[in-house]
Amino acid sequence: MKNNKHKKLKFPKGFLWGAASAAHQVEGNNIHSDWWHWEKCGRITPSGEACDHYNRFEEDFALAKKMYHNAHRISIEWARVEPKEGKWDEKEIEHYRQVLESLKRNNLKSFVTLFHFTLPKWFADKGGFEKNKNLKYFIQFAEKMAQECEGLVDFWLTLNEPKTYALAGYTAGMWPPFKKSLFKTYKVYKHLAFSHNQIYKILKGKYPKIKIGAAINLPAIHFFGKPFKSFFEQLFAKLSNEYFVNKIKQNLDFFGLNYYFLIKGLGSHKIGGTDEKEIKKIVVTGASDFGWNFYPQGIYEVSKKLKKIHKPIYITENGTSDPNNDKRSRFILDHLEWVHQAISEGVDVRGYLHWSLMDNYEWTFGYEPKFGLCAVDFETQKRTPRKSAKLFGKICKDNSITA
Ligand code: BGC
User: 274 or 206: whose pLDDT is higher?
Assistant: First the structure.
């Protein structure tokens, strides 16, 4: 990269700036979901009231606006909207319409995810995304939401991080439904891609102007080693992000990129394409409090790779857990410097949503990790912007960084 020291780096006009969230992580009392069920069984940390965002969304969006954000990512909780099979809860649908109206009033462009890891318990009980015959329920939910929220959503995201979901729930057995089967993982993965494609086709047919993407987590990958050959190795390769992107790339108006870290080491050079000498040169710049490495250059590397699919890119997540807030500002600046570099080399990145607006329920890790631009006191629900929130706010306001 050019020497950017103390240089002002401008982002393109109309660039979107904001933060991202997911319903189960912030809303609280998501009682009809599969996660809630397992939390009550004592198998995973309870989410409880979370950030009580369900009741405090007005306050939270006002805060985002005050910090000069012009976009925000939420998810609609399917378990609220359809708590029992085929029974739509009109009150909850109205709730989400109000949430979306509030985003509009605060001049925040909306990114809305339809599936961010949690499912209605009834759908999970039927076998969830494992079963081909269940996919129609998710597709119906997407159609229902598009119809009910017509004109209120700027960017739809069908799915969040299909690979994380499939691996955590079906390979590692760490997340609901706690299974450990590579075959089931692959099935779920394939079914998620199929659902995305169907939803895209149906909704674009009905609402040609609608914008639909998916949020995919692409780590920077540098592997070396022999190509995968055995049956299991090849099955594993099918779980790669490339496989998923290839399956859905015809059906995307934009690409939602979640970027967090670098994976390097032994593996198939077919995936990473880095040789042994090169890999030694790849260094990380630090680590979060729970061990995720910082590799800001990776956001550039993966964005550049995405250039070949010719879609606008929005960074739909990037962030770090940093309870003392002594790393987040640098983290943001370093990543944005590399985003800027990608843009200057012709990559069409149009927005950056930081994960997350405030500390929240970090899945099985509970409330320990602190990903928020704002700290949350979970006793009082008071939100306090951290220093890095102010820095980020200034970036949003100026549409530029000083590297
Ligand atoms: C997920 C978020 C999560 C974040 C930090 C992403 O993989 O989409 O839900 O909170 O990472 O772990």
Answer: 206
